[in-house]
What we know:
164 residues; alpha+beta; CATH 3.30.1330.30; two-stranded antiparallel ribbon; 6 strands; 12% strand
Amino acid sequence: MVDDEPEKVEGEELVDRERGGPDESVVSLKEELSYEDLVERVCAIAKPLASKKLTKRVYKTAKKATKAKSIRRGVREVVKSLRKGEKGLVVLAGDVSPIDVITHIPVYCEDRSIPYVYIPSRRDLGSAIQTKRPTSAILIKKHADFDSHFKKCFDEVKALPLPI
């Protein structure tokens, strides 16, 4: 006996049994995770990790950079920009799996004296730069439209202790 009622599955989303995909008429039951929950999911080598306040400031700066088209998104684009000598602030997601995908980026940053910081969630990083896809790495370049926000973030990230 097949009924047309959606069923709840382990991922906390309602799935239509017939189609096998999410039911458009039912809103997802997923709740937003707190900063502390996100930090628990971060890889052990994700240091320096941004505080809750700095994370919000970085998201805000990233959103302004997206509007000003002063951002590089994705691992390939960020690495290419670093090789070309572009300066700015590198933001990496700490919950990337496998972490080996982004482990070479901090080395590039340290060689070129570019500050970098890890944030807890790549999904939140993707939504901060207004894309639907989760993003593992971004490079925020300085721009006149958001100079004060960039300077605050840049100085805070530069003050964070680098891992040994």
